[in-house]
């Protein structure tokens, strides 16, 4: 698969492929080699970016849940919420959304990944899961995009109920801290696309980055920390340290993780 084909596949989502359940084969990560990190400020966009959320054609990502723009929904599609409600930014190889899919079958979830090869891998992984388990995994998909630039192009105001940032790039050099995915200006953007009461999840194995993300969220007027008692009862919070491939690597190395989960407020807090 060439670079252009991988990029197009990642943009179109986990479309159904004409393979039987018996012949479905999961993709091999070795065939989708990619750099560990990517500079989000590089102006190397090779994928389509919608002008506004209403332009996004979600039917390629969720064919059983969403109709094409301008077309009438089928009776089956009308039974479901056709808006994406969970987003995993920097989803890596898709471990989290795959685990979340059966826990929240009525919620549409999107993994967003800036690396084209990794996004293509996730799309192929989901397509294989759909073939192996007919009727399941129809609520998850993956898209190649740059979340630091284009989240409002894909999501409406107040749309997301859960927003995940699992093991983001720490960008250790002070000069590169501006590349970190948790920033005051970006938190304002996240608050815009999140529903009041929605949860924003972060986790890392880097202590300094954990302190950074928590401090930025605590200082923002639109977010409050979620009490530990509520986190214990939340299925998604329990998956942060075990679902993704990065989390599993940290666990194998017996590393520590630093979790911070915050709730989007109805109105700004007085500073």
Question: Can you walk through the features of this model?
Answer:
The protein is built from 10 helices and 7 strands. Strand 2, helix 4 (116-132) and strand 3 form a beta-alpha-beta unit. The protein is 32% helix and 17% strand. Residues 16-22 have low confidence and may be disordered. The termini are far apart. It has a 7-stranded mixed sheet with strand order 3-2-1-4-5-7-6. With 271 residues, the protein is of the alpha/beta class.
Which secondary structure elements does this structure contain, and how are they paired or packed?
Blueprint: H1 3-12, H2 75-78, E1 84-89, H3 95-100, E2 108-113, H4 116-132, E3 140-144, H5 147-154, E4 160-166, H6 184-193, E5 194-204, H7 207-219, E6 223-225, H8 228-232, H9 235-239, H10 245-252, E7 258-264
Parallel strand pairs: 1-2, 1-4, 2-3, 4-5
Antiparallel strand pairs: 5-7, 6-7
Helix pairs in contact: 1-4
